[in-house]
Description:
single chain, alpha/beta, TIM Barrel, 12 strands
Amino acid sequence: MAKNSSIEWTHHTFNPWWGCVKVSPACKHCYAETWAKRVGLALWGPKSPRRFFGEAHWREPLKWNREADREGQRRRVFCASMADVFEVRAELNEWRERLWALIAQTPMLDWLLLTKRPEKVGRCVPWGTSWPHNVWLGTTAENQRWLDKRLPELLRYDRASVLFISAEPLLGFLDARAYLPAAGKAARSLDWVIAGGESGPKARPMNPAWARDLRDQCQSSGTKFHFKQWGHWSPEDLNVDREHRRVEMLDREGRPIVLVRLGKKASGRSLDGTTWDEFPENRSGAANAA
């Protein structure tokens, strides 16, 4: 849990528990598992325990809600950075129920429920066709296979205030046009796309062409786009010295693109000279602070 989170697209993070099971390529170098191991906890895998928290932990979002109400500014809460709310496991049910109650008690907080298991959402949420105004539902889409597998499941929940994807780590070209708004399209579409490269000692490079292509799709459709980071690898045109490790990738036309292992902080988050910090409007009509 963190007030004033360092994650660029949220204000706070809240974890109803820690621990998960890896399910797709995005999970390979899971930062949450790495962090848990760093503090001496083995929480990943179907037979591993989960870490739960006490009353003080669960009271924190109530404080954030009071602060947001007092300031007249909504706040976003990423839930959960160290788990998956929709992992189907019996001992998690009571904690999920507590989370749904907490969401209802915090109307000034927009809860961003990001999952790699959108097919499990219907088994876990209590809302049916009447979703709370402060729930944003998202899924990870790291490559085309997982985009096409998860997005039809996500878009079933068209009563969520915001539907979004996190293409981080972005591991290939994504053709998201079938899931973005288009003229004459009545079905619910994505409201927001987050993209970014992988960080950490074993980070896989993100081809700049992948990020640019996804940005251009969002611009063409009017979808909000947020570029979170380059990660540990960034384009050579950032004018760095020659001592850093390099890797070559190809753009759509087969032209070489050189990336440099510069590190997350030095690589930054500017894409073609612009910091993409776009956020969607809450479909309930509630205002959102950037």
